[in-house]
Write a structure and sequence with these properties.
The protein folds into two domains: 166 residues, no CATH class; 122 residues, Beta Barrel (OB fold (Dihydrolipoamide Acetyltransferase, E2P)). The chain has eight helices and ten strands. The strands form three sheets. The protein has a five-stranded antiparallel beta sheet with strand order 5-4-3-7-6, with helices on one face. A three-stranded antiparallel beta sheet has the order 8-9-10. It is an alpha+beta fold.
Length: 297
């Protein structure tokens, strides 16, 4: 029993992907609105038959879209600390989804008493409101649990499949560039030229107001901080075929990738037998696959 409780606790603490791009948010919002509308259609939780009045069903679907859109696009901007992807977990995702279904249900209840039952006094009625809240919470928690488990398993399988594909089909050395064939590259950092062997530079990471150049020579890895932005480095490396911006905080050397790993949170690359895993932003996975399977820019 204790082991089962620990397993469940571990699952709730497991990392979970938060919708980063507008496309991901739109897909989640649309799915939530469809699920919420279908639950209302099937269960008829407010005592009226939505199936008999299609216009009300469409109105409730629109309520679901607008309510979820407000939550998904505005709340992360207002409270960025709560939606930090590094801290996002299955439990946080479940609670946020439940909150979304709760707000959708409350707006649906308001619509129902105003436009379907046409009795505004029911909105403030103790028993009526309590019954609606209970039904909303039951439906919302059930839908949130189903959605979390479904997406968790789909994302885990998808990223694991991509990882296995890349590990099998990854080419040898990626060479070339528009204008560069030299084994050395020169970066302008803090007003001076910094020279580094292009194959020794495994990756570049953002560290607050600084960037770190991670260099490996003779099995010894070192990192040096410079006051610069990752965007500045990306622009200087854009003509080198092997360097790829895989995440808002990382540029990787594709030749330094030892292996890739995938789970429900996303795709990760393991750099040149180092212990550190570098995340790949989900919108960049397709481009990374193209680079690695094609082997050139």
């Amino acid at each position: 029993m204790q082991r089962q409780n620990l397993t469940r606790l571990t699952f709730f603490k497991a990392s979970y992907p938060f919708e980063q791009s507008p496309a991901e948010k739109r897909n989640t919002i649309f799915t939530m609105a469809v699920v919420g509308s279908l639950l209302l259609f099937v269960l008829q939780p407010y005592g009226y038959r939505i199936a008999d009045q299609v216009q009300h069903f469409l109105a409730l679907f629109l309520i679901g879209v607008l309510s979820a859109a407000i939550n998904y696009f505005s709340l992360p901007e207002l409270f960025p600390g709560l939606f930090d992807e590094k801290k996002w977990s299955v439990l946080r995702a479940f609670l946020f989804l439940a909150f979304n279904f709760l707000t959708i249900g409350l707006w649906s209840h308001l619509y129902g008493v105003l436009f379907i039952k046409q009795n505004i006094f029911l909105m403030a009625s103790g028993p009526e409101l309590l019954e609606s809240l209970v039904k909303i919470m039951v439906i919302g928690l059930t839908a949130a649990a189903f959605f979390i488990l479904f997406r968790y398993n789909v994302m885990a399988r998808r990223h694991l499949q991509i990882s296995q594909e890349l590990n099998l089909n990854r080419p040898g050395t990626i060479e070339g560039g528009v204008t560069h064939q030299s084994p050395e590259l020169t970066l302008l950092l803090e007003g001076r030229a910094v020279r580094v062997h292009r194959h020794a530079l495994t990756h570049v990471s953002a560290e607050g107001n600084y960037i770190a150049l991670h260099v490996k020579r003779e099995d010894k890895a070192t990192s040096t901080l410079y006051r610069a932005t990752l965007k500045e480095i990306e622009e200087q490396l854009e003509t080198y075929a092997e360097f790829f911006r895989c995440h808002r905080s990382f540029i990787i050397n594709l030749n330094a990738i030892e292996s890739t790993q995938g789970n429900s949170q996303g795709l990760f690359v393991r750099i040149d037998e180092e212990d550190r895993r570098v995340p790949v932003a989900r919108p960049r996975i397709k481009e990374l696959r193209e680079h690695l399977t094609r082997g050139t820019n």
